[in-house]
Amino acid sequence: MRHRINTFIVPAPFFIEMLLPACIRHIHKPSRWNHIPAINLRNRRQTVANFRASSISTASTAEATSVMAQDGPTIQHPLQVAKRLEKFKTTIFTQMSSLAIEHGAINLGQGFPNFDGPDFVKDAAIQAIKDGKNQYARGYGVPDLNSAIASRFHKDTGLTVDPEKEITVTSGCTEAIAATILGLINPGDEVIVFAPFYDSYEATLSMAGAKITCITLRPPDFSLPIQELKSKLSKNTRAILMNTPHNPTGKMFTHEELDQIASLCIENDVLVFSDEVYDKLSFEMDHISIASLPGMYERTVTLNSLGKTFSLTGWKIGWAIAPVHLIWGVKQAHSYLTFATSTPMQYAAAAALRAPDSYYEELRKDYKAKKEILVSGLKSVGFNVYPSSGTYFVVVDHTPFGLPDDVSFCEYLIKEVGVVAIPTSVFYLDPNEGKNLVRFTFCKDEETLRNAVGRMKKRLAPK
């Protein structure tokens, strides 16, 4: 998706006037400036911001954009972005959500609930704000949240971690991933990822200058191709970046697969960055943290967040857990990315993580019911639906409907059917590997899911 940026170029005398103290401007204002109309403070700030943005000098091959000068002709400026990010466009989630709004489509694409999180967590945030916990938090997390994370991790994995030395709180798991990669990966280091993968992985690895090696998980079960993993590990492999339960496929790595990964990492002295944000949304088997396997905690960074489990994705509270020798790099990167995370929300997150086991049991029960509505509906429409053992996503084969690729199908689905899905080709280094697949989410209320299925039954038919 291409964007056009409107920037106003300010005449030099006017820009100088804006920078002068008010008292000087009013004492002496040359007559040659009198023709310039007054602007309000809000517009003035925007003009200054745009001026500064347009003054950045970076090499770019981006398209030229129209810029309207305030006093005359239109001039051209290129969109500017560092080379490390030139290949990355507007995220597919933004594109699809914009189309959804334009066409009034039901959004089963982007993975955010259309219902709110639990009251006891929201009440804790309100109380923290009222109690004055509104200034910068300690960089690596308020003590109460660090302790709650350590307790929850111990309960889930049996591992005891030091909340003061082995945990860093971040602005969502996406920042935890970025801080881990930027803090522990050097330019030229090889990092192995399993495709399809969350799109921020590739972008952040590119920002770090890493060499990305991709191993594809293939339908119908998206199992680990262990021989391919063995063949691609080398002396240059620094880390494996993995995700279980797995977005977008819903796959959960089995105990056997995790054992195989662990053995190879120990044998080849490779780190693991394990994204486990969907750990509480496991339906067919128990979630296993790879850090809990023998010999793995010392070489693993475990990444997680609050948003998926408590339906509070907008809070952006995440964390990284790792031994001291690894968390140090994560902390260093985090301190220069965001420094600290929202203070009152951290106190509320601590209350959330102390929820009784019954909360998680009800959560799984609720999502299993939603999953059944969507999966049975998609099958009745005519999709080839692949198994999903965890997360709140389902991947399907769209080819029965005769569209040439996933992007074409998703655009048709939005414009002609009124339902949003996400094309999975964006989750692969080679987009052709995902062109037959699209992803739906069931993190919506049951009425929304039934309405979406109803639209597809009426307006979509296999060819």
UniProtKB/TrEMBL annotation:
The keyword ATP-binding does not apply. GO terms for cellular component: cytoplasm. Keywords: Aminotransferase, Pyridoxal phosphate, Transferase. It holds the Pfam family Aminotran_1_2. The keyword Transferase applies. InterPro entries: Aminotransferase_I/II_large (IPR004839), Kynurenine-oxoglutarate_AT (IPR051326), PyrdxlP-dep_Trfase (IPR015424), PyrdxlP-dep_Trfase_major (IPR015421), PyrdxlP-dep_Trfase_small (IPR015422). Its cofactor is pyridoxal 5'-phosphate. Residues 106-455 form the Aminotransferase class I/classII large domain. One of its GO terms (molecular function) is pyridoxal phosphate binding. NCBIfam families: PRK09082.1 (NF006569). This is Aminotransferase class I/classII large domain-containing protein. It comes from Mikania micrantha.
